[in-house]
Design brief:
One of its GO terms (biological process) is metabolite repair. The protein is built from 16 helices and 18 strands. With about 500 residues, the protein is α/β, with parallel strands linked by helices. Bound molecules: ligand NPW and potassium ion. Potassium ion binds near residues 59, 119, 122, 123 and 151.
Length: about 500
């Protein structure tokens, strides 16, 4: 699990460490790690052209010291000082000693010929979008040929929320220090940060326990264990699905299939799309009656394609009145937004899975702080909120949050939400992980499935169902190191 630490949490840990280390040690650690990543990206130092955009704070200091290291290895480094009178004095001296050139914001900056552009305008001390002329230089860097590398945080991005209020530096890579900040992996900040590289500067023991996390394949694999010799269809979790309708059985078919393919135990379906489900999934146990006719289940998935009429409302209320975990998706969200008391403070876990428009029906639009928004609704309803997006956010009522790392734009197509709901039902049915962890694991697996299903071209939702067993295998395999990266 990767902890996501806010700027204040990082600063508090830095303060403890600064008091115990010689002056400048932390910045040297940061600059050394930054220069090492730049060298890897450049492939060579000698003759490489590097332009560093340098603000007046310590973020600029990091860029200057890293520039000095690159210059000492033969790179042609130009530092563009945005506020020449306030540039980090020791960093500036080091760059000059190493043979780097220095110019003001109006001077010759080499941006249009640079092999690499370092963004040291502003880091965790920033407020709001970039000011001119930094905004102008950032736009030129993005349009130029150089690899763009943000120092700690892309300037203009809110390190805690990922909000961009105005202009921000568009980085292909971000080298961040001490801990990954939430703003690098969520919201608009995710798009500005590119690939995130974490440099250890020794903060670990001093960091407060993070309240937000990213799961890795290894974390998710722990919830996708193969069956053991004593397992049977009941011990692997029985999922109940209320979804779809006679006219639109598709959602029921996708949701049921996803639950079956995630953990092939037992799926019971109750509703008017029974014929469609029987035809597609003979493995499912189908009743055309009410949820109470379905037999014993361990978690319910309610909502995809079920409609919002009186009958659908009664079905949803019946499921929510049980003491079982319930996934509230799609049409069920519309009904829950009308009547929040249906879901508020149930004793068993409830997981709501809104996209932005569904979220707004609960009263307040998502806004730029997606983690904050999910936490607010989760606390208000006493439920887990899974807020869908490029980087899906999960929040529990106690504020524990997760940001998904495996999302792909290919998942933005009809029916993929029905598949996610089915995966989530399967992971909730065993009741082992806390519901927010199960929801985060479901989002992770859904993303991995999307990556797999779109490896050779665009996907449709039923491709996801077909690729689920492969994705489960991929996640398990990556976790033991036999396949691909860690998934973070
Ligand atoms: N502490 C440590 O030991 C370590 C810290 N480290 C590093 O320090 C960084 C934090 O440094 P920091 O606190 O000095 O603030 P920083 O991010 O440089 O910004 C302040 C400057 O930005 C300016 N500015 C603000 N908003 C702006 C905007 N929208 N657009 C343009 N400018 C804007 C603001 O201007 P002012 O408002 O004062 O006019 C001020 O000049 C951290 O991210 C990491 O890189 C590492 O070396 C590890 C050890
Ligand atoms: K920066």
């Amino acid at each position: 699990m990767i902890g996501l630490s806010t700027a204040a949490e990082v600063r508090a840990a830095e303060d403890v460490l600064l008091a115990r280390t010689r002056e400048g040690v932390l910045m040297q650690r940061a600059a050394t790690g930054l220069a090492a990543v730049c060298l890897r990206l450049l492939g060579r130092a000698h003759g490489a052209r590097v332009t560093a955009l340098v603000g007046a704070g310590n973020n600029g200091g990091d860029a200057l010291f890293a520039g000095a290291r690159l210059a000492a290895r033969g790179a042609r480094v130009t530092a563009v000082l945005l506020d020449p009178d306030r540039a980090h004095p020791a960093g500036l001296a080091a760059l000059r000693r190493a043979g780097g050139r220095v110019t003001g914001p109006e001077g010759p900056d080499g941006l249009d010929r640079a092999d690499l552009v370092l963004d040291g305008v502003v880091g965790t001390g920033g407020r709001g979008g970039l000011r001119p002329p930094a905004a102008h230089l950032a736009a030129r860097a993005a349009a130029g040929p150089g690899v763009t590398v943000a120092v700690d945080v892309p300037s203009g991005v809110d390190a805690d929320t990922g909000a961009v209020d105005g202009e921000a530096f568009a980085a292909l890579h971000t080298v961040t220090f001490g801990a990954v900040k939430p703003g690098l992996v969520v919201g608009d900040g995710r798009g500005c940060a590119g690939t995130v590289h974490l440099v250890d500067i020794g903060l670990g023991p001093h960091l407060a326990a993070p309240r937000a996390h990213q799961l890795t394949d290894a974390d998710v694999a722990a919830h996708l264990q193969p069956p053991e010799p004593g397992d049977d269809k009941y011990s692997r979790g029985v999922v109940g699905v209320v979804a779809g309708s006679a006219v639109y059985p598709g959602a029921a078919v996708l949701c049921t299939g996803a639950a079956l393919r995630t953990r092939p135990g037992l799926v019971r379906y109750a509703g008017t799309a029974g014929d469609g489900v029987r035809a597609a999934w003979p493995e499912a146990i189908v009743t055309d009656g009410r949820p109470s006719d379905a037999g014993r289940v361990q978690a319910w998935v309610a909502g995809p394609g079920m409609g919002t009429d009186d009958d659908a409302r009664a079905t949803l209320a019946e499921v929510l009145a049980t003491d079982l975990p319930v996934v509230v998706d799609a049409d069920a969200l519309t009904m829950a937004a009308r009547e929040p008391d249906l879901v508020r403070d149930r004793r068993a876990p409830t997981v709501l899975t809104p996209h932005d428009r569904e979220f707004a029906r609960f009263g307040v639009p998502v806004g730029a702080d997606r983690i904050g928004a999910a936490r607010r609704l989760a606390a208000e309803l006493g439920a887990v909120v899974l807020l869908k997006g490029d980087a899906t956010v999960v929040a529990g009522p106690d504020g524990t949050a997760f940001v998904n790392a495996t999302g792909t734009a290919e998942l933005a197509t009809a029916g993929t939400g029905d598949v996610l709901a089915g995966i989530l039902g399967a992971l909730l049915a065993t009741g082992t992980p806390p519901a927010e962890t199960a929801a985060a694991a479901a989002a992770h697996l859904h993303g991995r499935t999307g990556q797999l299903a779109s490896a050779r071209g665009p996907l449709v939702a039923s491709d996801l169902v077909r690729h689920l067993p492969g994705a489960v295998g991929l996640v398990r395999g990556s976790a033991t190191g036999s396949l691909r990266d860690s998934g973070a």
